[in-house]
Amino acid sequence: MNNKLKKGAPDVKTPGKDWPENNEQANFEDIADPVVKALKVAIKKGNAVYKDGINWTGFKQGKLTRASVFPPTVALHAKNLTYSKKEQGRDVITEIVSIAVQLGIEQGRRMVVEDLERYKFLFKSEPGKEIIESLIKT
């Protein structure tokens, strides 16, 4: 069986790097560098990016975000970039910025979990306990 990917095809076996374990924050460079790399590729390739796609080397989105969006490797696939542009009016830069925002949301969630001990006194009610538990589980 041929395991080589076709040009522009996403590597769905690896939808992105896994985040650090135990809700630890990622290093800024590990989040930002792949975003910058993808932006540079998009700018350099111009319209050819819709034919070739972009190889994503960064993190996948957080668990909650992945429930409603494609992983970066799929979103940056040539066919999906073309669809996003033609059908939704979103160009490749918009797609990359969207991924960056999604990664920022996950990093922010991790920051909240890390600081929960400091703010636990705010969540003494039952709804507050549920919020804390849901943040820690994801």
3D architecture notes:
The structure is a single chain. By secondary structure, the protein is mostly helical. The protein has one domain (28-137). The chain contains 7 helices and no strands. Helix 1 (28-45) packs antiparallel against helix 6. The longest helix has 28 residues, at 92-119.
Name the structural class. mainly alpha
Radius of gyration, taken over Cα atoms and rounded to an integer in Å: 18 Å
Distance between the termini: 37 Å
- How many strands, which pairing sense, and closed or not: the largest β-sheet? none
Q: Please bin the fraction of helical residues.
A: 55-70%
Total count of helical runs of at least 4 residues:
7
What's the overall average pLDDT, rounded? 84
Any low-confidence stretches, pLDDT <50, length ≥5? 1-5
Number of strands: 0
Strand-and-helix sequence, N→C? HHHHHHH
The global form is: elongated
Number of domains: 1
Strand content: under 5%
Layout of strands and helices, then pairs:
Layout: H1 28-45, H2 49-52, H3 63-66, H4 72-75, H5 78-88, H6 92-119, H7 126-137
Helix pairs in contact: 1-6
Outline of the structure:
The chain has 138 residues and is mostly helical.
Observed structural traits:
7 helices; 138 residues; single chain; mainly alpha; disordered N terminus; 59% helix
